[in-house]
Design a protein that fits this description.
164 residues, mainly alpha, 0% strand, CF(0), transmembrane, ATP_synth_F0_bsu_bac
Length: 164
């Protein structure tokens, strides 16, 4: 039970030892400990400030990145629009050129058909003329060969006419 109820002498010496310990600590250890604590507090504050700066810089970079992305999208859209317009123009030009070529081909084909038609008509006319000449020749020959028969018929008719 001596430990539970301390004596006045034990209490006195413990107090003196405690005060000496506090004096020694204040004289030799308190300043380095406070310096280390202050240094640690300062490094923590610097780290917090650096983190805040890094966060702000990241925010700025993020906004710059978003701005660059917007510009890139706008530029991409402009390029795509220009490409579409160019494609449509090229297709329209190609269609127009193809239409012109088709029209030229059709016109040339019509002209060729007309020339062939004229040539065929001329050929038909020549053949008709040749056939007509041949038929006329045959008729004339027949008529000339039948001349004697015609003379006899004419004489007979004349004889009948005078008799009547």
């Amino acid at each position: 039970m001596d430990l539970i109820t301390p004596d006045f002498g034990l209490f006195f010496w413990q107090t003196i030892v405690f005060l000496v310990l506090i004096f020694i600590m204040a004289k030799f250890a308190w300043k380095p400990i406070l310096g280390a604590v202050n240094k640690r507090e300062e490094s923590i504050n610097n780290a917090l400030a650096s983190a805040e700066e890094a966060r702000k810089e990241m925010q700025n970079l993020k906004s710059d990145n978003e701005q660059l992305m917007k510009e890139a999208r706008a530029e991409r859209d402009a390029i795509l629009k220009e490409a579409r317009e160019l494609k449509e123009k090229v297709m329209a030009d190609a269609t127009e050129e193809a239409q012109e070529k088709a029209n030229k081909i059709v016109a040339q084909a019509k002209e060729n058909i007309e020339q062939e038609k004229r040539a065929a008509m001329a050929e038909i006319k020549n053949q008709v003329a040749n056939l007509s000449i041949e038929i006329a020749e045959k008729v004339v020959r027949k008529e000339l060969s039948n001349k004697e028969k015609h003379h006899q018929m004419i004489d007979e008719r004349l004889g009948e006419v005078t008799l009547n």
